[in-house]
Specification:
By secondary structure, this protein is mainly beta. The protein contains one helix and five strands, in the order βαββββ.
Length: 115
């Protein structure tokens, strides 16, 4: 789980506008700022940032925005990276689903991989 502040979401309720705001807020976020490492399926280290965001569902309950997103990002299999190792480090495509739970008034909340 990682804490997140997305003021772009405050006051946004229309599904298309919410999808655009979530996409804008998460695209390019660095792997270190999100729990991407916990969603790896192919590599051993998440690298770079989020490349694409898919809004799966959203609802409001008790002053909280509950949003499920699919994030596309890359990983690699970490090796020894010895100077004489001719094996290139190939980037691997990754996809993970995450739940955002945000305060509808402030945009503060957290993001975690789905169970």
């Amino acid at each position: 789980m990682a804490e997140l502040t997305l003021p772009e979401l405050v006051g946004t309720r229309d599904r298309d506008a919410l999808a655009a705001a979530v996409r804008e807020a998460l695209i390019g976020r660095d792997a270190d700022a999100l729990p991407l490492q916990q969603a790896l399926t192919h590599g051993s280290v998440a690298v770079g940032g989020v490349r694409e965001v898919l809004l799966i569902s959203s609802r409001e309950a008790g002053g909280r925005l509950l949003i499920r997103v699919g994030l596309f990002f890359t990983s690699l299999i970490a090796g020894c990276n010895c100077a004489d190792d001719p094996t290139p480090a190939d980037l691997l495509e990754e996809y993970g689903e995450f739940d955002l739970e945000m305060d509808a008034r402030t945009g503060k909340g957290d993001i975690r991989p789905t169970a």
